[in-house]
Design goal:
The chain has twelve helices and ten strands. It is an alpha/beta fold and 322 residues long. It has one domain: Alpha-Beta Barrel (TIM Barrel). An eight-stranded parallel beta barrel has the order 1-4-5-6-7-8-9-10, surrounded by seven helices. Helix 4 packs parallel to helix 5 and helix 9 packs parallel to helix 11. It starts with 12 loop residues before the first helix and ends with a helix. The structure holds ligand PBG and zinc ion. The site of ligand PBG has 11 residues, from helix 7.
């Protein structure tokens, strides 16, 4: 025999399945959710087709079906009506009020909460000017989420040392487990360890009303040319106490995911961001690509080495996987 007959393995779906190396599971997916104050609100976000602003009452009603379809985890963003950083750590904040309500209805649903300032600051930046002072504020936000009963806090600001500050503050809490939190454990930290200053965040900034009023985020988010530095960022966050790390964006950064997988043993989460979502979504809506392109792209993220995927496609992918 002069050559190998690979096509024998591809002859039909049953055979292909036996040779398949990577699978997507429902439990891989984390659904990002935008919560707003008020009642009875379900408003499609202009920049993101099929993604909505929800008030917590409607969200709880809508998420039930998804939980039944296998949704295991959500990532909450609170979008306040008016700016002001106190709301970020107030017990009356949008996220702080929503957590216990969601936990009560769906005790098994994992709640991850975004920890950042950019939806709350007037200038739309993720910091208040000073790195270390910002870290202290972020720790305060994390503690307020912990008190409300979040399972995991996810700092997305890219300040130096914020995982250290947050871990300290969470560890010092006397009673980290309000009645609705399971067990006697502290919330974990899922840090945006390698978050690049990307052009793929545009639609999200509309959704979260957090576009910087002036300048950009290049002085704190990573230079997108850097892979070794990404490994340093991840190592630093793990060292400071991160339980899992996020790489963001995902699709243009599969090399980062793959390298991180080879170098670190902690869970790696990839954030399939708003711009990536919109490009694929629009291509499918316009008929330029088959719907399966979504599954293919998400599987690519898994194949690169991600353990979990944060994606706006979560609701539709759960349905496809039915
Ligand atoms: C802000 C934040 C951003 C995203 C998550 N948190 C945008 C930014 O850094 O400007 C992007 C998510 C997405 O595009 O889906 N801390
Ligand atoms: Zn931010």
């Amino acid at each position: 025999m002069k050559f190998k007959r690979f096509r024998d393995r591809r002859i039909d779906e049953k055979t292909r399945e036996k040779y398949r190396e990577t699978f997507l599971n429902k439990s891989d997916f984390i659904w990002p959710v935008f919560l707003v104050d008020g009642k009875n609100i379900k408003q499609e976000i202009k920049s993101m087709p099929d993604v909505f602003h929800f008030s917590s009452d409607i969200f709880i009603r809508e998420v039930e079906q998804l939980v039944k379809s296998g949704l295991k985890s959500i990532l909450l963003f609170g979008i306040p009506e008016n700016k002001g950083i106190e709301q970020a750590f107030s017990e009356n904040g949008i996220v702080q009020k929503a957590i216990p309500k969601i936990k009560k209805e769906f005790p098994e649903l994992e709640i991850i909460t975004d920890v950042c300032l950019c939806s709350f600051t007037e200038n739309g930046h993720c910091h208040i000017g000073d790195n270390d002072k910002t870290c202290k504020l972020l720790a305060k936000i994390a503690v307020s989420h912990a008190k409300a009963g979040t399972d995991i806090v996810a700092p997305s600001d890219m300040m130096d040392g914020r995982v250290y500050y947050i871990k300290e503050a969470l560890t010092k809490m006397k009673s980290p487990s309000p009645p609705l939190r399971k067990g006697d454990c502290h919330p974990q930290i899922m840090s945006y360890a390698a978050k690049f200053a990307s052009n793929y965040y545009g639609p999200f900034r509309d959704a979260a009303d957090c576009a910087p009023k002036s300048g950009d985020r290049k002085s704190y988010q990573m230079d997108y040319a850097n892979v070794n530095e990404a490994m340093e960022e991840i190592a630093a966050d793990i060292d400071e106490g991160a339980d899992s790390v996020i790489i963001k964006p995902a699709l243009a950064y599969l090399d980062i995911i793959s390298k991180a997988r080879a170098m670190f043993s902690c869970p790696i989460v990839a954030y399939n961001v708003s711009g990536e979502y919109k490009m694929l979504k629009t291509a499918v809506k316009n008929g330029d690509a088959k719907e399966e392109i979504i599954y293919e792209s998400l599987l690519g993220i898994k194949r690169a080495g991600a353990d979990r995927i944060i994606s706006y496609f979560t609701p539709e992918i759960l349905n496809v996987m039915e």
